[in-house]
Amino acid sequence: MKTYWAIFKKEVFHIFRDTRTLFILIGMPLAMVFIFGYAVTNEFKNSKIAILDHSKDELSGELIQHILASRHFIIERNINSTDDIDLIFRKGEIKMVVVIPPQFSEHFYSNDHSQIQFIIDGSEPNFANTLNQYATAMIRRFSLSKIGNSGSIPYSIAIEMRMMYNPELKSAYNFLPGTIAMILLLISAMMTSLTIAKEKETGTMEILLVSPVSPFILILGKIGPYAVLSFFNAVLILVMGYYVFDVPIIGSLCLLLLMCALYVLTALSLGVLISAKSDSQQSAMLTSLMTLMLPTMLLSGFIFPVSSMPLLLQYASKIIPATYFIDIIKSIMLRGTGISSIDFPVLVLIGMTLFFLMMSLVLFKSRLE
User: Fold this and answer.
1) Using one digit for the tens of pLDDT, what is the confidence trace for 154-210?
2) Same domain, yes or no, for 176 and 323?
3) Is there a single domain that holds both residue 30 and residue 81?
């Protein structure tokens, strides 16, 4: 244990000695929180929705077919009760529920202002806005198609819209989870791979390896400070999100911090794996940028919805740890879900962590060639 703490303190001294690196590690989270204040919107397709049809008449069937014909929406499931709405939202299965009221056809043709309700997951505000705009436009086109060429509007459909989890559609609700995922990857994985690669490049790794210290204790001692720093940054971003941007934490705070710790372990194990294959800092940097930063930004759902991507990229997103972590943190913070609703992404992150560690042990050599 004394050996571990000696290596841990040595790495801490190295971090505080390099003021430029320290400034990046502390200043980068703050900068990224403000930089990603406005999420990028993009056209979507194949968004999964649910239908609650109380009417079940011919007109409601035509309306459902009209929605499907646009190819912007996929009906994931039909539900029979309003009690099921909250459950499927908490599971993250769908993004919108279309509620068709009873006697829809009768009210429509009697010019009695038929109402259709959109219940939308507002945890991704820009995507929720796009959903609302597309669905509203489709309902209007359907109404006009029933008018024909008469030139008058005898029938109308009033639309009632309610945003769940983010009623004010604040963009911070979307970018904060992605920013945490990005920061933890950059600090945990990239900085860990760089510091180990630096030891190899300068030749000090050979000296450390011939010492009585085992490689396992050596690696743990070098990544320990970055684990603490990464967790501190995660807490810092959560505090900023809560007090500065009013992003709520509806679920369990302890569960949220535990999931952040799990993601830090996943990122650290990935950084160790990268360092095991890199002989120089330049190689570690390029590998980290290509395998961590760019995929996390573009393919994890941080900026662009995964469902709008080509099928090949959707499969590629499934091997990115940030994809699962963003889903976990949004579920806990915004939907207030428990561990039972996020068990699959949690198991995936645990499996990734174990896989990265096993691969690192296989690739890490106790003697440099």
Assistant:
1) 556 666 777 788 776 677 777 788 888 888 887 788 777 877 777 777 777 666 666
2) yes
3) no
